[in-house]
């Protein structure tokens, strides 16, 4: 009996040691990041979140502040690579960067291509229309002859394609072009996130107006980092940072600093 117990204990100890070794080992991407102390990140322009200041030639915003805090806490230098929203996932898959940190919304469609981590922000969908437009609701928008501009590859495009049955959806490469379509009368509305659209309407009150949808009509999306499925250990590392910062109220403070709604940090209630 003692021999059986001793054998069982030895077997259990060996299994535990093997498991610990497996858990502790990192994949090649995370190994390289830890060794070089360098993380290459893909980002796309987004006002108040990730934007290059032409005066300082430095990136700034809600997400950039979070990245700089991550650098300070981990000692890992982050290299930002600027791209378009539609190119974020393709660049990640091609190995141009290790992770996407532009607040890409986690959706089932995108999850077939990349792995998403812990959310660090929350957004809903709204419409920007001309200030003199008669559009006041989602029903007003979904009519024959109306044109909805969106940025290609965003969750707003996916929301619009699922929601609008009669209006025409026009995907464009970047936000500036999509909003310009509305301002110049070629599009009825631009569908984007609630935070950015509210800022646009405040900045151009005589030109643009933000139309919010009913609670049963809009969709909430999360802001997440994304990695390749082969780099899930990297995501565990990043998620540890995000969860810790949430508990410290870091994201709420960032929202206040950048004049953004607190719901960005708290989500729907």
TrEMBL record:
<protein>
    <submittedName>
        <fullName>Transporter substrate-binding domain-containing protein</fullName>
    </submittedName>
</protein>
<keyword id="KW-0732">Signal</keyword>
<dbReference type="InterPro" id="IPR001638">
    <property type="entry name" value="Solute-binding_3/MltF_N"/>
</dbReference>
<feature type="domain" description="Solute-binding protein family 3/N-terminal">
    <location>
        <begin position="38"/>
        <end position="262"/>
    </location>
</feature>
<feature type="signal peptide">
    <location>
        <begin position="1"/>
        <end position="26"/>
    </location>
</feature>
<dbReference type="Pfam" id="PF00497">
    <property type="entry name" value="SBP_bac_3"/>
</dbReference>
